[in-house]
Amino acid sequence: MKNIVVLTGGVGGAKLVLGLARILPEEALTAIVNTGDDFRHLGLHISPDIDTLLYTLAGKANAAQGWGREGESWAFMAALRELGGANWFALGDGDLALHVLRSYSLTRGETLSQVTANVAARWDIATRILPMSDDPVATLLDTDSGRLEFQRYFVERRCDPRVQSILFDGAEAAVPAPGVTDAILSADAVILAPSNPFLSIDPLLAIPGLRSALTQTSAPIVAVSPLIGGKAVKGPTVRLMTDLGMVVSNESIARHYAGLIDGMVIDSDDQCDMPDIVVIKCPTLMTTLADKRRVAQAALDLAARMRS
Amino acid sequence: MKNIVVLTGGVGGAKLVLGLARILPEEALTAIVNTGDDFRHLGLHISPDIDTLLYTLAGKANAAQGWGREGESWAFMAALRELGGANWFALGDGDLALHVLRSYSLTRGETLSQVTANVAARWDIATRILPMSDDPVATLLDTDSGRLEFQRYFVERRCDPRVQSILFDGAEAAVPAPGVTDAILSADAVILAPSNPFLSIDPLLAIPGLRSALTQTSAPIVAVSPLIGGKAVKGPTVRLMTDLGMVVSNESIARHYAGLIDGMVIDSDDQCDMPDIVVIKCPTLMTTLADKRRVAQAALDLAARMRS
């Protein structure tokens, strides 16, 4: 399979993309990344999921922390606090370079796609990283504390407010970024990373042109479940499913992706009783690089089986 | 004397302002600061002379380096270089907090005066720090390498191009910042700090409303010469005077300020043979705090003598 497309969000997705990047030939892989979490903070344009993927693929990610850069320092934040600046969102000194340069490039008329491609080239990342769209899409959560922007919910409020519904402001009008539709239509397989389906994958699916490409492509579409033993490795997936009144199970995930996916990779000890899709099992916890390669290989094997 | 106004630029000026702040009653001192060096870099609004004064009065200045913050770190610059960002202007990690916050506040509609006052309040600085204007004024140098913005000349080109003339773009239309005119008109003394006359003080004098207040005020106006033994402590004063065809002497400085100043403080071992102004001498090299107080006191004494 020459062209593999992976739809991805934050940390969990980036782990799978890294695994795929290590077993596929260079340039076989296109990652289409959620930008619903993007926001402006202190005048800077921040793209958390793109950054996580860039850092992960460049070997700069802070694995222990789960976000940001390895070996990061925090002198900026210390000075910012002293000045009374908003400090609910942590900006590392090295991380800031990416935000400042991106913001500056965007104000000069470059697109998010171009900025992302430039950084990836600078860091010798062969995987093609495409934002889902160059148009602004904002994930908003209606909660018992009112409507919240994603980062306010996720970082500032630590997913505490109870979520009633999620919307993707701007998605209806958003156009897939250059290359996104072509990549999906010419793909040999499309993989949905084990990112949060509701917060990280749904924003992509909410863009009409992107969704339409997924329904048109002849490529099999397989998902890697974000659940292991009924829990998510990281993030608010379980909390969200509960808030939204779902049973926390692989079946709920499969049902959420119904009509879209042909198969799903789940953890060895788990079940997914859904007649319409093919399910394969492997240990899906991704800690080491070997883990990431294993899960990536399982997803590719499942997709290959769907094609034959 | 209750109201003292000092017109100032960068490092040398900040030293005198610190000396004045330590010997005058709190809130007796208003510093009016050059903003001709202000520029946008990577989308950030940077006000070098205001920053130098803020850092100096807050006890945060890096005395050895002559600019920026004490104990500064450089992780941002390292990451920026790695990304291929413009790195000719050094932005420390802590320093960045001031630039990011100022830029953000300005885009939200605050004025440079307001931003500066907020930082000063945050850092318990009693001296009133006023930008010369909230309107943009850009110091430009016509050189044998073409027209250069101040920071390009000063930092990037290290004052190497030969200067033919200096202009202050926007000065004609600029209005003195709130409080500037009143401070000068109600001053008991106005002091021109030993900053570069051509690059740091002239921008202020190029603003019609500010110049007019200086000609109207009944306060004596005294300058502290930036020359010691025919040399400047720091910066391109001598180089500039030579480029512009002037003899490097206190007389040239006094002549440059002719019609404006009533007196001048020069170094103990120097001369200034100008019949129209009163000259007093003291050791003007400001290394220790005692030095700064001594030079500040000399300027105040000279002004007091002019009043009597």
List keywords for this structure.
3-stranded antiparallel beta sheet, alpha/beta, 7-stranded parallel beta sheet, Rossmann fold, 308 residues, 39% helix, homodimer, 12 helices
Q: Mind telling me the C-alpha Rg of chain A?
A: 18 Å
Assign the CATH class of chain A.
Alpha Beta
Shape call of chain A: globular
Return residue spans of chain A where pLDDT drops below 50 for at least 5 consecutive residues.
none
CATH H-level name of chain A... which superfamily? CofD-like domains
Explain this structure.
Two copies of one chain form a homodimer. With 308 residues, chain A is an alpha/beta fold. Chain A has one domain: 3-Layer(aba) Sandwich (Rossmann fold), CATH 3.40.50. Helices cover 39% and strands 19% of the residues of chain A. Chain A has twelve helices and 14 strands. A seven-stranded parallel beta sheet of chain A has the order 5-2-1-9-10-13-14, with helices on both faces. In chain A, strands 7-6-8 form a three-stranded antiparallel beta sheet. In chain A, strands 3-4 form a two-stranded antiparallel ribbon. In chain A, a hairpin with a 2-residue loop joins strand 11 and strand 12. In chain A, helix 1 runs parallel beside helix 2, helix 1 packs across helix 12 and helix 4 packs across helix 5. The radius of gyration of chain A is 18 Å and the shape is globular. The model of chain A has no long low-confidence stretch (mean pLDDT 95). Chains A and B meet through helix 3, helix 4 and helix 5 of A and helix 3, helix 4 and helix 5 of B.
